[in-house]
Amino acid sequence: MDIKITRAKQLKNKPDESNLGFGHYFTDHMFVMDYTVEQGWHNAQIVPYGPIPMDPASMVLHYAQETFEGLKAYRNHDQILIFRPEMNAKRMIASNERLCMAEVSEELFVEAVEAIVDYEKDWVPSAEGTSLYIRPFCFATEAGVGVHPARAYKFIIILSPVGAYYPEGVNPVKIFVEDEYVRAVVGGTGFAKCGGNYAASIAAQVKAEKMGYTQVLWLDGVHRKYVEEVGTMNAMFVIDDEIVTAPLEGSVLPGVTRDSCIQILKDWGYTISERHLDIDDLMEYAKNGRLKEAFGTGTAAVISPIGELSYKGNVQIINDFKTGELTCKLYDELTGIQWGTKADPYGWVKTVK
Amino acid sequence: MDIKITRAKQLKNKPDESNLGFGHYFTDHMFVMDYTVEQGWHNAQIVPYGPIPMDPASMVLHYAQETFEGLKAYRNHDQILIFRPEMNAKRMIASNERLCMAEVSEELFVEAVEAIVDYEKDWVPSAEGTSLYIRPFCFATEAGVGVHPARAYKFIIILSPVGAYYPEGVNPVKIFVEDEYVRAVVGGTGFAKCGGNYAASIAAQVKAEKMGYTQVLWLDGVHRKYVEEVGTMNAMFVIDDEIVTAPLEGSVLPGVTRDSCIQILKDWGYTISERHLDIDDLMEYAKNGRLKEAFGTGTAAVISPIGELSYKGNVQIINDFKTGELTCKLYDELTGIQWGTKADPYGWVKTVK
Ligand SMILES: Cc1ncc(COP(=O)(O)O)c(C=O)c1O
Ligand SMILES: Cc1ncc(COP(=O)(O)O)c(C=O)c1O
Q1: CB atoms < 10 A from the CB of B129, how many?
Q2: Are B126 and B17 in contact, with CB atoms under 8 Å apart?
Q3: Is the shortest distance between the CB of A255 and ligand 1 below 6 Å?
Q4: Of A320, A337, A348, B29, which has the fewest beta carbons less than 10 angstroms from its beta carbon?
Q5: 3-state secondary structure of A272
Q6: Considering the entire predicted model, what is its pTM?
């Protein structure tokens, strides 16, 4: 790919690494590429971060033909590492296919990610727990108000230096089991990382926060009883000697962190089952102590222990609201691989030249 | 509301009224208004139609916090009429509430619609069946990649002179009953007019068109058997002497045309039931002749007769693939009211000064 580079006239001051938050700061440049039916993907550029002029009839603003990805670049001294970018590329292909959008090939996607991260490498922070969040996204730019697959798209990558996702650090969070709103249903777009899923999820998030909870645990939309995901993370439950997580049947996002955890846990000899888990059973296991640990997995927070579950007025504390042993071990292993401080037997980490 | 007006330096040539299509042409000006948490809605303007500069981190491009409406202005000689704009205003309030977006009050919404239609009144076409499609829409402009309700929005109205929605005219269409993809589920966003619903629907539409069908008939996402909507229309079925349409339980869009048809049909003495209708029963009624007529209702096509239903390989023709008597009568009544050629006992039509 030929990337045309236009350097920003003035570079920004880098923000204070001890107070980055999540997704508030953006770097000096972004990657942009255009698609038309006639030309395919073309016009790959690195340009100064800044506003994009959009026709008010751009289909993305009306029919939400938009998908995104999220991954991170980690600093290990002078090396910049990225974690399994090809997984994000593949997931975006699946998302775009579901929304009938032009697909960015795995090769183009990874090349673009590496190019912009390399160009902005000074922005990868070095403080403990910090990283450079990479946000590739794709949306329909065709102007028109008929509902149909658009004939023109943009693929953009923006970068944001981030701190730990939860300001509280790796501490257990309180989770509200949502029984009114539904995130996704088989036959819908739950497995795709598309904007509509997130717009639909905000009401539940707001409701949970109002009641003092950090995130919601989603139940399936058909039976309203099988555990699916927790906020923007996949969820894992250690029940006796079995680790249970929801199967990928169309309504759950196939998380890269989820997949990585499953591989590590299997290699450690654990029994991990991708199966339906009834919320009534889960609450019972929490009550009688069979639920040893519970945690969410996702790029933003990596591993996030769950300390409390509240379902229809029934409140259960997990592991005395302490981060469990396995949760800790998994967090250390995965972040160790990601930051390059532990061996990477899986070949997951890519060094950006 | 104080509206600042900036006139376009050069006006466009009006398109040929005999060949408008749907949503291809936009008028010279648009209405734009901004929202921030601090200021509320402010900065109402009529400006030349043209690109909006958008931050690449604008939340609408990532999390699809976006809603829209669709209504029409009709020309009756020198008068410009709009149809029940307060219904669209109310629906947008409900949509924005579901997506935790700032709400545009009914009063502001209607005032803005009237103001821009009045300003662009030369664009309301006069040829038979043509009208000016009005597209109010609202989206999150806050820049940031954390998932939360945005703190800044835009509300815009663009206008497009349109012809008949189906180029074939008021002729029966072939409908494919979709049993793989799901449009909406109770607890989700089906009742809201938000972008995500439409992005999710495109795959089924494409699939149906490939097989030679005009639209899909959606089934409910839980049981996968109750009839919901047809494409971007509500659906009505004349079974014996009963007219059946899906109830508004959260997964179906509450159409303004649907509501208007229900009122007219009731006044005509018909029995109209908002109830679940099993697709297996419907196919059986179509087969044994009890299904007399079927049609979709929506702003774009007004009334669209259904001539064929295909479900899991079972193909049934309705009313010999001819537009039914009641369908015709309803079309004439409603379009008569809309264009001001028939009496309006309901007070639905508003004259734009
Ligand atoms: C809904 C949802 N589930 C799960 C995940 C976890 O996916 P990943 O591990 O690839 O970040 C995410 C993304 O962060 C998400 O948005
Ligand atoms: C999904 C869907 N259902 C039904 C309708 C009909 O609604 P209305 O009669 O208000 O146009 C529409 C909008 O046109 C729609 O998009």
Answers
A1: 16
A2: yes
A3: yes
A4: A320
A5: strand
A6: 0.97
Instruction: Say yes or no for a CB contact (<8 Å) between A181 and B196.
Output: no
pLDDT average, residue stretch B298-323: 96
Length of chain A: 353
pLDDT of residue A164: 74
Closest by Cα among B306, B264, B274 to B177:
B306
Find the Cα–Cα–Cα–Cα dihedral A88, A90, A95, A101, rounded to 10°. Answer: 110
Query: 3-class DSSP state for residue B235?
Result: strand
**What's the rounded mean pLDDT across residues B13-26?**
92
A144-186 pLDDT, tens digit per residue, is: 999 999 999 999 999 999 997 665 568 899 999 999 999 999 9
What integer pLDDT is reported at residue B168 of this predicted model? 58
A64 conformational bin, left if phi > 0, alpha if psi -120 to 50, beta if neither: left
What secondary structure letter does DSSP report for A341? S
Asked if the Cβ–Cβ distance from B189 to A199 is below 8 Å, we say yes
Burial A285-305 (b: 16+ CB within 10 A, else e): bbeeeebbbbbbbbbbbbbbb
Q: What are B227's strand-pairing partners?
A: B219
Q: Hey, where are the domains in chain B?
A: 4-162, 173-339
* ipTM for the whole predicted complex goes beyond 0.85: yes
What is the bridge-based pairing of β-strands B131-140 and B71-76?
antiparallel
Residue A192 binned pLDDT confidence (cut-offs 50, 70, 90): very high
How many percent of chain A have pLDDT more than 70? 99
Query: What's domain B173-339's architecture?
Result: Alpha-Beta Barrel (3.20)
Nearest CA-CA partner of A170 in A301, A5, A18, A318: A301
Residues in Cβ contact with A234 at an 8 Å cutoff, skipping those fewer than 6 apart: A245, A246, A252, A253, A255, A257, A258, A296, A297, A298
Instruction: Give CA–CA dist A82/A71, Å, rounded.
Output: 8
Q: How many Å apart are CA B346 and CA B104, to the nearest integer?
A: 25
In one-letter notation, the amino acid at residue B48 is P
User: Is-contact A251 A191, C-beta < 8 A?
Assistant: yes
**Candidates A185, A210, A214, A223, partner chain B, best to mutate (most B CBs within 10 A):** A185
- What CATH class does A4-162 carry? alpha beta
Segment B107-142, tens digit of pLDDT: 999 999 999 999 999 999 999 889 999 999 999 999
Terminal CA-to-CA distance of chain A, rounded, Å?
A: 16
Q: What is the pLDDT of residue B164?
A: 74
| Cα–Cα distance list, A171 to A2, A222, A295, A336, B7 (Å) | 45, 32, 11, 18, 57
Ligand 2 site, CB within 6 A: B 70, 229, 232-234, 253, 255-258, 297-300
**Which residue is closest in CA terms to ligand 1's atom 12?**
A232
User: Which tokens belong to B42?
Assistant: 């402010």
